[in-house]
Each structure stands twice: as C-alpha cells, then as structure tokens.
Amino acid sequence: MLHSDQIILTNIEAINKIPAVAHILEIVCRTTGMGFSAVARVTSDTWTVCAVRDEINFGIAVGGELKLETTICNEIRQHKQAVIIDHVAEDPDFAHHHTPSMYGFQSYISVPIILKNGTFFGTLCAIDPKPAKLKNPTITGMFTMFADLIAFHLDALEELAKTERELKKEQEIAVLRDQFIAILGHDLRNPLNAISNSTQLLSRSNLDERTGRIIKIIRDSSFRMNGLIENMLDFASGRLGGGITLSRTADEDLERLLFQVIEELQAIWPLRDIKVNFSFDHPVHADGKRVAQLFSNLLANALNYSPSDSTVLITAFSSEKEFNLCVTNQGKQIPDAAMERLFQPFSRGEVEPSQKGLGLGLYIASEIANAHDGTLDVSSTPEQTCFTLNIPFTHDNFK
User: Fold this and answer.
1) Would you say the pTM of this structure is higher than 0.85?
2) CB-count exposure of residue 386 (10 Å: 0-12, 13-18, 19+)
C-alpha cells in the first residue's frame, strides 16, 4: 500500500500528465483578471498544489502545502460546492473569515473536482488581492467545465494505469505459463523416450496376439504424446520470443522424409488408404525436419477427421519457383466459424472425444510455413478438405 506522501506525489504526477492543465490555468487568469490560479489536491489531512500559475508572487510552487484548516478548500471538501467571492470586504459570509485575512486576497473562486466514482479529488481555484467580477454564468460555467475536464482526464489516466497493471500481470502470468510448458515438455521427453524404446525392444520378442496389441497401443500412444510434446515446446518457444527456428539444407531430401512420415502414421492407421503423388523436379531449400513435422500434423489430422473407409490423398511437387504440398481428406466440411480461428493456438473446432488434443498442431504448422516465408492455406467443401503448403523460391530462401 502506498504511503500518503507517495499518493500525493502520484496525484501531482497525474495532473502534470494532462497537457490541458497549464492552458486551463492561463485561461482562468486571463479571463478573470486574477493573478493566481491552481489545481489543488485536497485530502482530509493536506492541501497540496499540483499545478500552479502565479503572477502575483503568492509564493507557493508545485508540491507546496498549506495548512488544511487555513483554507476554504477544506470546507469545499466537506460540502462539495463551489465558493465564489467577488469582494471579500463586501461579502457577508467571508468578510470576517480567517482565510482571506491570512492570505491577503479579496477575490476568490474555487470549484470542486469530483471523480467519476464520486471521490473528491481537490479544487480548481483562483485568488487575487483585488476584487473581481466572478459571480456570473460565464465564469462559473467555465470553471465548472474545466473542473469536469480535469476530472475526466484523471479518470482516464486511472483507467489507463489500471489496464497497464492488468496487462503487465497477464504478461507475467503468460511468461510463467509458457516457461512451465517448456520445462514440462522437456522433462516429459525422458520418460516418454524410455517407454518408446521399451516398446521397440518388446515388439522384437515372440509375443502372443493379445500382448502384441497392447504393445501397439503403447507404441501408438507414445507417438501421439511425442507429437503433443513437440507442439508444446514449439509453442512455448514462440511465445517466449524464440519463434520457430529453422536449419535449412540446400537440397533437402523431402521425398524421403515425407514417405517416412507416411510410414509412421500408416503403422498407427494400418487399414487406412493413403495415396501419394510426388514429383520432385527441383532441389528444395528447406528445413526437412520442420516440413516433416508440419506434414505429420496435417496427415494425422486428415486421418483423424475423415471416414475410416475413405482415401487420404497427398500430392507434392517442386519446381524452379516453388515447393507445394497438399493433403486432402474426405471428412466433414469445416464450419465457417471454425475456419476463422483454425490456425490460432488452442483452437480445435468440434471434435470427437477420441480426437481431443491441445489444439496446437495447425498453429505450429502455420508457424513453420511462415518461418519458410511460405503459406499454409485450407479449403473445405462438403466433399473434401485440403490443406496446402506453398514455399516460393526466392533469392532470400538461399541466403
């Protein structure tokens, strides 16, 4: 909790962040003919100048204080009404008031500054040793308008500060969350690798049919978990500022890598029909591991979201101008609402219980495409859905 002195300093800083205040005080003096005008912060304990224009050498600067009990502003704090005095000596209410005689003024005007929540902040005030004509709608209306304007700006500054505090807190939470994801993903790799290696060893043994099915379930689950961990780590890396990193090879053997991914997924979906049409006529300058990761996400989605008796078609070609990869399945049409957020993190659309995941696969895939200065697009009709990766070949690709 802030100390009262710190609160006052914060109030002074807030007033001086409002560019209009200096002009307001100048206009007040010019319009009324009075030599001193100020914005004062008035609390139950203190009267402090936040901004001032002093043409009569009253002698108090920003941050200066008056004893609260000696000010009329203390009374305004209690009743929250403006006080206007044209000529103290002729005013029945203030002719014998201690404040004018103590500070030597004859004209006085002070209007309360009330914040949106009803809190009394302070006053916009002016004084002068000479009488002035203040009790008229023009002057009082001007002061009221200026006081309201100052209150509006103070409320806006407070809302902005509140938003910035909340944003900072959210950012800190986001960083901690992403650090947790990164650490968790890294630490999960070791036991998962142990499980995967053990299933490979067991699968080479003479197993009965039931045990073989169990080993296959463990192996398939390990493969799926590995993909989830990879996506978690890439997501956390991107969020923490690292982004998707690439290690390009001038003549990447993408055909071999794509077939490797197909074999891995075909082992998990042995009954699915996967047709391939590849035509690699030009070297591809890319990160093969990343393209394979992208392809694995697309193909796994295609197999997950299409009927078991349908065919998944994969086409890929390279030319002097581009590398193009398309994965097509005959699943349900993707709804328009889901299409809008398909490549956003944690977006999974409508899925079956068996298809639940983190919703990071397509996001990571799109980030890999972006890192290659390429695009990942989707088209979906009632007949088929097609995800297409396109990496154009430019001079920058080979730097």
Assistant:
1) no
2) middle
Determine phi and psi for 12, rounding to 5 degrees. Answer: -60, -45
Topology classification of domain 4-160: Beta-Lactamase (3.30.450)
Residue 276 contacts by C-beta under 8 Å, 6 or more apart in sequence?
A: 259, 262, 314, 315
Cα separation, 281 vs 284, in Å, equals 9
For the packed helices 4-16 and 137-203, what is the interaxial angle rounded to 10 degrees?
Answer: 110
Q: What is the pLDDT of residues 232-256, one digit of tens each?
A: 777 766 655 556 777 888 888 889 8
Q: Quickly count: other Cβ atoms within 10 Å of residue 84's Cβ.
A: 18
Please give the CATH number for the structural domain made up of 254-398: 3.30.565.10
> In this predicted model, what pLDDT tens digit does every residue of 77-129 receive, in sequence order?
999 999 999 999 999 999 999 999 999 999 999 999 999 999 999 999 999 99
Question: Could you tell me if 78 and 53 are in contact, meaning their C-beta atoms sit under 8 angstroms apart?
Answer: no
Distances (CA, A) of 264 to 125, 247, 300: 80, 23, 10
The domain limits of the chain are: 4-160, 164-229, 254-398
110: three-class secondary structure by DSSP: strand
- Which of 21-30, 238-247, 277-286, 365-374 bottoms out in mean pLDDT, i.e. has the lowest? 238-247
What tens digit of pLDDT does each residue of 331-344 get? 888 888 888 888 88
Element (H, E) at 229: helix 209-239
Number of H helices, E strands in the chain: 10, 11
